[in-house]
């Protein structure tokens, strides 16, 4: 997006230069030469990568859900295995996994792809999995006003799999339930049994 304010654009360019210089220094701290052929373009690539990883800050993810349809459906709708990638806010390490989102409508449904776009919007921010899970559930609840919402996220965190304790195969599971799913164990059980199948 172009900004009419030249001072704002100049500040952004200055910030970009400072960021890229910091990446050059990081390369040196790690023990390599930022001027060698393979690393000369790396500071720019790193900046571009972070802008891509954080696209969710430049949108309102729940707005994707606002395309609503009047449909008389009173049972569970579930979208399984919505793949996503994110960035751990503690280490800037990748998080990747799948989200499962289910809801019981209250007269209104949204497009299935809109749910996936909303998940991506929240995932493409600096995140912790617990917040991501709740943001998805709260967006569904706020926009659709369903009888209930349930979200399950299964993800691998490279801050745990690739560094620190290095538990390569560990998967973190988080849940959020609202409305009828929070109140009714049978509805929760229905969601989880469909998830297993």
From TrEMBL:
Organism for this UniProt entry: Tigheibacillus halophilus
Subunit structure: Homopolymer.
Binding site for Zn(2+): 88, 91, 159
Protein name per the record: GTP cyclohydrolase 1
Coiled coil: none
UniProt cross-references to InterPro entries, sorted A to Z: GTP-CH-I_C/QueF, GTP-CH-I_N, GTP_CycHdrlase_I, GTP_CycHdrlase_I_CS, GTP_CycHdrlase_I_dom
Domain of life: Bacteria
GO molecular function: GTP cyclohydrolase I activity
Enzyme class: hydrolase
Enzyme Commission number(s): 3.5.4.16
Keywords: GTP-binding, Hydrolase, Metal-binding, Nucleotide-binding, One-carbon metabolism, Zinc
SUPFAM superfamilies on file: Tetrahydrobiopterin biosynthesis enzymes-like
Annotated pathway: Cofactor biosynthesis; 7,8-dihydroneopterin triphosphate biosynthesis; 7,8-dihydroneopterin triphosphate from GTP: step 1/1
UniProt keyword annotation of Hydrolase present: yes
Reactions mediated catalytically: GTP + H2O = 7,8-dihydroneopterin 3'-triphosphate + formate + H(+)
HAMAP family with a match to the protein in the record: FolE (MF_00223)
Gene3D superfamilies assigned to the protein according to its UniProt record, in alphabetical order: 1.10.286.10, 3.30.1130.10
UniProt entry tagged with the keyword Transferase: no
């Amino acid at each position: 997006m172009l900004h009419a304010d030249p001072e704002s654009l100049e500040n952004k360019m200055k910030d970009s230069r400072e960021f890229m210089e910091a990446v050059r220094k990081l390369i040196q701290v790690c023990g390599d030469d930022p001027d060698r052929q393979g690393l000369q373009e790396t500071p720019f690539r790193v900046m571009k990568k972070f802008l891509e990883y954080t696209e969710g800050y430049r949108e309102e993810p729940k707005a994707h859900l606002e395309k609503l349809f009047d449909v008389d459906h009173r049972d569970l709708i579930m979208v399984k295995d919505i793949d996503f990638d994110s960035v751990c806010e503690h280490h800037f390490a990748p998080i990747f996994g799948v989200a499962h989102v289910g809801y019981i409508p209250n007269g209104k449904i949204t497009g299935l792809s809109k749910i996936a776009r909303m998940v991506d919007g929240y995932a493409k921010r600096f995140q912790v999995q617990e917040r991501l899970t709740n943001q998805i559930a709260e967006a569904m609840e706020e926009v659709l006003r369903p009888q209930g919402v349930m979200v399950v996220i299964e993800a691998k965190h490279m801050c745990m799999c690739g560094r620190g304790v290095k538990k390569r195969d560990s998967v973190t599971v988080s849940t959020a339930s609202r409305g009828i799913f929070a109140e009714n164990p049978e509805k929760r059980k229905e969601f989880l049994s469909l998830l297993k199948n």
